[in-house]
Amino acid sequence: MPVTPANRPRGNKPHSSKQSTSKLPRTPAAFVALIESYIWNVVLSMWNPKVAKRWSRLLLVLEVCLCATIIKRVNYTEIDWQAYMQEVEGFLNGTLDYSKLEGGTGPLVYPAGFVYIFSGLYYLTDHGKDVVSAQAIFAGIYIAMLALVFRLYIKTRHIAPYVLVIMSLTSFRIHSLFVLRLFNDCVAMLLFYGSANLFVGNRWLTGCLLFSSAVSVKMSVLLFAPGLLFLLLQQGYRTTVLGLAICAGWQVLLATPFLIVNPIAYLERSFDLGRVFLYEWTVNWRFVSEKFFLDRSFHVALFGLHLVLLVALCWRCWLPLRRAVRTTDAVGVNAKLMVLFTSNFVGIACSRSMHYQFYVWYFHTLHFLLWTMPMRFVTRALLLG
C-alpha cells in the first residue's frame, strides 16, 4: 500500500533541511558560546578517570612529537654512552672475564642483561657512533615505558587524566635522561613496568621473568623485590617458589658465559652491594660532609633503617592488603601497586647515594602514591615539586 500523509507512521517524519541545520550556530556569539562549551567539556573530562585512556593516547602522540623536537633542537650530552659501548665492545671481541671489561668511566659494573642489550644497540648504532639513531631508539623506549605506566594508572580507575598530564608536563629531566643522556636505567625501568603490568593481571611467572630481566640490566630494580616477595607469598607457596626460581634461574642462565670464566669477578662487579660511590656525584646526601658520607657506619645505619622501615611498612600497610592483592580488579591493582611502589620508595629514601639519572627509578611512581594518599591538591603539588 503506498504511503500517504494519512497512513505514514508517526515516528518516521521526514527531516527537512531546515530541521537538520537548526542546531548550528547562526550568530558569531552563538559560535563562540559553542566553542567555549566544547573547551569547558574537555577541561572537565580531565577530572574523569573513565576517559583516562583517551587522554593517554593523546599524550603519547604529543610525547612522540616532543621527543622528536628534543632530538632535533637540543644538543646531546655525552656522559655514559661511549663508556657503555666500550664495555660491550670488549665482550663482542671475545672477553668473558668481567675483571677485564671496562670503559672510559671505569670497570663494567652491570649484570649480563646489560651486556646483551647494549651489544645489540652497539650494532644498531654503527658501533655506538650514530648517536642520533641511539637517541631515536631511546625515545622509543621512553614512549613504550610511558604507555606501560599509563596502562597501570588507567587500571587503578581512580587516577584522573589531569594527573597523566602533570606527569608529562613535569618530566623535563626524564626526557633528558632518555633522549639526551641514554642511561641504562631507562632500559631497566621499561622492563620493570612491563613486569608490573603482568603482576597486576596475576601473571606472576611471566612477570618474574621480565622482572629478573630488568634486574639483569641494573641491580637497582631490586628495590622493588621486598614488595614483590610479599605479593608472591600471598599467591601461595607454589607460586612463590616457582617465581623465585625463575628470577634466580634467569640470572644464572644469562650470566653462564661469564660465570664459567670468572664467577668471582662477575658477582663482585655486577652485584656489588658494598660499592662506594663518589661524593662529588651524590644528590641526596650533599648536605653532609664527605667524611661522613664515606663512613662505613653511615652505610650500615642506612641499611638498618631500610630494614626497619620495610618491617614497619609490611606490618602497617601491606598486611591489610593481603586479600586485595589476590584479585585483578581495580582494588587489586591499587593494592599491588601500593606494595611495589612503597617498597621502592623506602629503598630510595635509604639509598647510600642518589645520582641524577636515578630519578627515573621513582618519578612515575610518585603520582600514584600522592594521589592515593588523602591530601589536598596543593599539598600534592608541593610534594611533587
Write structural notes for this entry.
Helix 9 runs antiparallel to helix 10 and helix 11 packs antiparallel against helix 16 (330-349). Residues 14-21 have low confidence and may be disordered. With 385 residues, the chain is mainly alpha-helical. Strands 1-2 form a two-stranded antiparallel ribbon. It has 18 helices and two strands. The chain is globular, with a radius of gyration of 26 Å.
Q: How would a crystallographer describe the biggest sheet? A: 2 strands, antiparallel
Task: Write down the Rg.
Answer: 26 Å
Anisotropy-based shape: globular
The share of residues in extended strands comes to: under 5%
Give helix and strand order, one letter per element, not per position.
Answer: HHHHEEHHHHHHHHHHHHHH
Quick description:
By secondary structure, this protein is mostly helical.
Topology:
Blueprint: H1 17-20, H2 28-45, H3 52-73, H4 81-92, E1 102-103, E2 106-107, H5 112-124, H6 131-156, H7 161-169, H8 172-181, H9 184-200, H10 204-217, H11 225-234, H12 237-261, H13 263-270, H14 290-294, H15 296-318, H16 330-349, H17 363-372, H18 377-384
Antiparallel strand pairs: 1-2
Helix pairs in contact: 3-6, 3-7, 4-5, 5-10, 6-8, 6-9, 9-10, 10-12, 11-12, 11-16, 12-13, 15-16, 16-17, 17-18
Top keywords for this entry?
mainly alpha, two-stranded antiparallel sheet, 2 strands
